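Figure 3 (text version): structure tokens given as input.
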């Protein structure tokens, strides 16, 4: 199954055919190419706890190999928060029904840029919205959390701000905000606007009465 992940195989046949091309290397490891029926039986009877333990053991070994070189140099601890949907066969995984004829699970992940290792991971049904997960997350003061706008939820924004956590996110197109201050922008560069804003809707202002900084940036490659 490790070969399946690394080789991005999509079926049992692909796994077996791929391992067939490596039979010489497998022989040196004392391993024979498994049949499709053997893999199918293993998938059906092998407990999920085994994969969980392998992941945790591998994660711990990676952490012990640190410290890792930093691609981004920040004084603060930098984390990225995102989610992705993994499609599943609805007829096999009926508990993970996402749409009428589609099954899926969603992985909510916090990536630690100190070594590019998972800081938090949660697998839910595909229909679970990101905002339900973001309200459960807690971070240390001084941490910078970068997230997509799908995680927008003003209540945790307020809690994080009061706890000294910095957050960076794209603004939703329908966000109801007011401008408290227009700040000067450089004469050259891609920054078009630099503003201090507040949430203007009654619920938004009640959930998060703090001010935020809004930057409007022109992307040269797309205009």
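Below: residues designed for each position.
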């Amino acid at each position: 199954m490790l070969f399946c992940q690394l080789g991005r195989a999509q079926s049992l046949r692909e796994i077996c055919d791929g391992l067939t091309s490596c039979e010489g290397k497998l022989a040196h490891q004392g391993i024979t190419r498994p049949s499709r029926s053997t893999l199918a039986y293993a998938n059906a009877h092998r407990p999920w706890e085994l994969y969980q333990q392998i992941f945790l053991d591998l994660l711990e070994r990676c952490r012990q190999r640190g410290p890792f070189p930093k691609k981004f140099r920040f004084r603060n601890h930098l984390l990225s928060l995102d989610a992705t949907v993994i499609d599943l066969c609805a007829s096999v995984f009926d508990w993970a029904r996402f749409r009428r004829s589609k099954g899926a699970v969603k992985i909510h992940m916090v990536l630690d840029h100190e070594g590019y290792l998972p800081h938090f991971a949660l697998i839910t049904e595909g229909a679970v919205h990101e905002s339900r997960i973001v309200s459960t997350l807690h971070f240390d003061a001084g941490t910078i959390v970068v997230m997509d706008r799908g995680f927008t939820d003003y209540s945790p924004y307020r809690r994080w701000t009061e706890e000294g956590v910095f957050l960076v996110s794209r603004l939703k197109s329908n966000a109801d905000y007011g401008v408290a201050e227009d700040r000067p922008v450089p004469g050259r560069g891609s920054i078009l606007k630099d503003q201090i804003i507040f949430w203007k809707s009654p619920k938004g202002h009640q959930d998060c009465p703090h001010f935020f900084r809004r930057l409007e940036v022109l992307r040269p490659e797309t205009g």
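The CA atoms of residues 83 and 108 lie 4 Å apart.
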